[in-house]
Amino acid sequence: MNLDSSVIRTSLQLQAGHFSDYLSAEQSYAEQPLLSTSLTRVAAAPLISIRTAAIAAGIATDYYSLIGLQRGSGYWISEQRQTPLQAGDLIFIHASESFTFHFDRHYEVVSFNLPRWVVDDVPPHGTVWPGTGDSDGTAHDLVSLMASRYRQMQQGDFRYRQNTEARLLRAVAVMAAQQTPKQDSLQLVQQLIRQHAADEALNTDWLGRRSGFSRRYLFKLFSQQPCSLNQFIFRTRLEHAYLGLTDPQALIRPVNDIALSSGFKSQAHFSRLFRQHFSVAPGAIRRQLKDTIGRDIIHYG
């Protein structure tokens, strides 16, 4: 079996390094090789997996994963945004970038892992294809395909693995071609919110002045989105705080300082809302980061 060396190397790094340390004996992490790629399945209890910049730097820069969520829900969090994930969703990640997966209950994922050279182009880091509301069913069908192919892989011969890899590579190519960057009104407002989430003055009136849009139009922009305008502001501030809590360079920074600099009026208010949203206290995130850094020093230092 001619499995690409970067797939083997990165798989070994993830297993011997930081990832498998989170899993108990009742949970599973296993990988099935195809030809130049592989399929991975993870079934785990609640998980906060922080891929710090130091960990990401130890992973091949030409390594990517298309991850399908079979069961559960949670968040994918990066410096750019916080993305809610539901069963049936697909997300494309660049393994050498830093990010956090946050699942507050049992979840199952299957991922297609590939080196850069096997495709002409790849989707942007963090691109998500929702499984719900997907008009042509592409995302949901792909998650089901990846899961079924993984289950049957042990009995599959060379041609079966070859066919599986070819089908999934075609899917990645199609998804990459569909990503046409454009800056519409909604994206402009979302960008303004992300850039100024730490400003306590951020509200609909402020957004109206900065964007030139009326309050009515601002609310209309979000009417067909998963959350309202005010909810998006609230979630973006929580994302800003989450990134502060998972910053390895700010371990001694007080939680109150992070709360205030993320647009919240008090630590108590922030902690209550943070727990409601993420089902875990801010202090637990900080402890997880310390544990991650400890493993980082052992495996990558």
Give a summary of the structure in a few sentences:
This protein is an alpha+beta fold and 301 residues long. Helices cover 44% and strands 20% of the residues. The protein has two domains: 5-178, Jelly Rolls (Sandwich); 185-300, Arc Repressor Mutant, subunit A (Orthogonal Bundle).
Give the number of domains: 2
Number of strands: 10
Shape, please? globular
Cα-based radius of gyration, to the nearest Å: 20 Å
The mean pLDDT is 79
The oligomerization state is single chain
Query: Could you say what the CATH topology of the largest domain is called?
Result: Jelly Rolls
Query: Strand sequence of the main sheet, in spatial order?
Result: 1-2-9-4-7-10
Helix content range: 40-55%
CATH architecture of the largest domain, please?
Answer: Sandwich
Query: Would you list the SSEs in sequence order as H and E?
Result: HEEEHEEEEEEEHHHHHHHHH
Sequence stretches where pLDDT stays below 50 over 5 or more residues: 1-23, 297-301
Q: Say which CATH homologous superfamily of the largest domain is assigned.
A: Jelly Rolls
Structural class assignment: alpha+beta
- What about the largest sheet? 6 strands, antiparallel
Tell me, what is the CATH class of the largest domain?
Mainly Beta
